[in-house]
Amino acid sequence: MKKFGLFLSLLMVLLLFGCAKSAAAPETQAAEPMETTEPAMSTQPENAEAGETQLPESSPQRDSNFVRVSDFIPNITVDLRYATGDNFTGEVIYSFQDAYLRYGTVKKLMEVSRVLSQQGLYLKIWDAFRPYSAQWKLWEVCPDSTYVSNPETGSSSHCRGRSVDVTLVDSQGQELEMPSQYDDFSALADRDYSDCSAEAAQNAMLLQEAMERFGFTGYQKEWWHFSDTDEYPVDESFDPALISTWYADCQEFISLRAEPSTQAESLTRIPAKEEMTLLGWNGEFALVDYQGQQGYVLGTYIQPLCLPTGNRMLS
Fold this sequence. Notes:
By secondary structure, the chain is an alpha+beta fold. The protein has helices at residues 2-37, 44-53, 103-117, 132-141, 198-213; strands at 66-68, 77-78, 100-102, 122-127, 163-169, 216-219, 222-228, 244-248, 253-257, 266-271, 275-282, 285-290, 293-298, 302-306.
């Protein structure tokens, strides 16, 4: 009996030890799969939900966007003649001082500047983007389509932000000799170059070859005028004179649209109180830049944070 009792005691100990070991095993085995499978777990439901509630990221700078040339070509000289009375009209045609072009056009101009700088030469801009209203002013003074595009035809490449009037300067900012002065409406201004000095002809050809190499074409009657070979539409909204900081005056968000219409594609959402840069107006819609993305918002849902000096409040 004693042996039998001892045997039962040993059996119970073994059974208890085995049960304890079996109970502990699932914890250890469960922990291992969690460590190896957790990184592979799908987060798609989480992202899908976030996609519905979070605002999409802004897209990269588009070629059609208007940008300030000096932001991308710091060594460029800007002397906008139509911002002063120092032009063939003797009048101020527009009030802004910075040159603006399409981003796609500026990228090409950057390449021109890079090549010229290797020779110790730099670009000087006399005219770039020209507001539609400014084109009308020029046409009223000089209704000659040889030198000024008729705004009714919609052919003005300056109003498209793809044309620039330029010359060359040296490292001291001095203009190189060219066939004529700017806005010279005589035969001296054309690209014949046979009626000017050899130095002027050489400089004009140097400028022309650099511009054509990177995707510009010159106007035959004006050695200074070059247009991007890529097309952009005439823009009647953008006006550098109106550039200022505004904010979204709404409860939740406003839509940034591709066109000035409530039916147009929504590019992104601008949350309440978020700041944006006003670029111009198109009827009841404002053309704005929000985090590098340009589009239209309803003007009734934005308010000015600050306005350009001397600019009046817009209604």
